[in-house]
Amino acid sequence: MIDSARFNASAQHLSNYFEIFFWIVFGVTIVLGLLVLLVRLREVRLRAISKAAIQNILFSSAVVGQLLLLLAVCYLFWFNYHNPAPVIQFPGDVLADTYWVNDDLEIYFIDENRLQSVGINGRNKRDVLVAADPVKEYHFSSDGEYLLVATSREIYLIDRDTGEKQLIDSWGQPDAAGEWKGVISGIRWAPDSRRFCYEVARWSSYSSQNHLYIYDVQEKQKRTFQSPTRRISSLYWDRAGLNLYYVEREAKDTSVHAYAFDVNVFRIPLDSLKPEFVAKIPYDRSGIPMANLTVRGIDLSLEGNVFSFSPGTARDILVSDKGKVLGVDDDDHLYYVPREWFRRRLFRIQREARPSDIARHAYKGGDLTIAQIRWIPGGRYAIIHHRYLGLLVVEPATRKIGLLIAARGNAVGWYDKNFSVHAGTHPTQ
């Protein structure tokens, strides 16, 4: 009698190494085929002695063996896709730490009014900034020496080597009636890491104030200039770090025009800080017409927009710098593609219904308990943001998974000199 548990365990093991098993089967097929061909080409004397026996045995073995191997391959393929992978359990599948991770990358994350960091191996946890208000976003300078942290009211400059913190600006406190509100936005480092720009906006039901600033890190001075419009959506540095650019979009009637927008481009030279009109560019999308700007000699630096853990979903298909793939399939399985084409299911992700959901409207029983997944540089490990457990680290090749930090850990990010700038923005923004 076959032990079904042991059989399923063996099948699961083979499915985890499906590609290796496939190539073994392929190699055996080639070897058997060559043996059959060799026997057929032997001299007459050998054929006269053992022609019938050897030929029939080899042929039968090749046919029957390959049929069995083909059935095994098909079964393993079916087993991997139709036999549910285990649900991530804690404790059990999830190790209590990540000390086993062979990497020391420093991971940053937001936990309410704290910006914290910890090594991906679980060591050296520390508070980078403890603010009076919730932390909203943070940005590394291109050289990695500085960190800009914005809360709901303030913006700080932090020296990453010394830990020195400097309050750069604040929109202040709400008035007694709570009418005045504000926000700090548009934070962007210059390519040389010497300057950065940002916007401070305040408003009430009666009036509003918008100011744009450029701060010089070395001189510890800021300069302000007025926006010619009510609000600039984003400022962009050129690669020389000598000018700032912004765009305004005018929607067009597509029944009359062959394009959807007129994109008005403005330049702000640092020497004068006076906005000047550059060009009006017809464009069929609402984005930045990079090709048209390049033709006009405008080379924008967009590296500051690279976020390692930008707002996204768990269903994003993620490709590491080594070409390995992580994703979530339609059956809520976290899958891994180590080489070319075969998906290896790692875990099934649980769903939990939100209290606000009406039962008949809940999709497949609620939301996925995993919010986001991101590869870290090197492509060996990935970080998982679990809604309830916290931050997890998984090594897909071994299905090993451990708890990095038992915190919500929004806006996970890091700086790595080999991969330009990485920063985090709160998912709710």
In short:
This protein is α+β, with helices and mostly antiparallel strands and 429 residues long. The model is unreliable at 420-429 (pLDDT under 50). Among the domains are: 4-81; 130-302, Methylamine Dehydrogenase, Chain H (7 Propeller), CATH 2.130.10.
Give the strand order of the largest sheet, numbering strands 1, 2, ... along the chain. Answer: 1-27-26-25-24
Helix content estimate: 10-25%
* CATH topology description of the domain at 130-302: Methylamine Dehydrogenase, Chain H
Helix/strand class: alpha+beta
Structure annotation, total helices = 4
Tell me the name of the CATH homologous superfamily of the domain at 130-302. YVTN repeat-like/Quinoprotein amine dehydrogenase
Largest beta-sheet characterization:
5 strands, mixed
Q: Give the amount of beta strand, in percent.
A: 35-45%
The CATH class name of the domain at 130-302 reads: Mainly Beta
Global mean pLDDT:
77
**Contiguous runs where pLDDT drops below 50 for at least 5 residues:** 420-429
Termini gap? 59 Å
Assembly state (oligomeric): single chain
**Rounded Rg:** 30 Å
Number of strands: 29
Quickly give the CATH architecture of the domain at 130-302: 7 Propeller
Give the overall silhouette: elongated
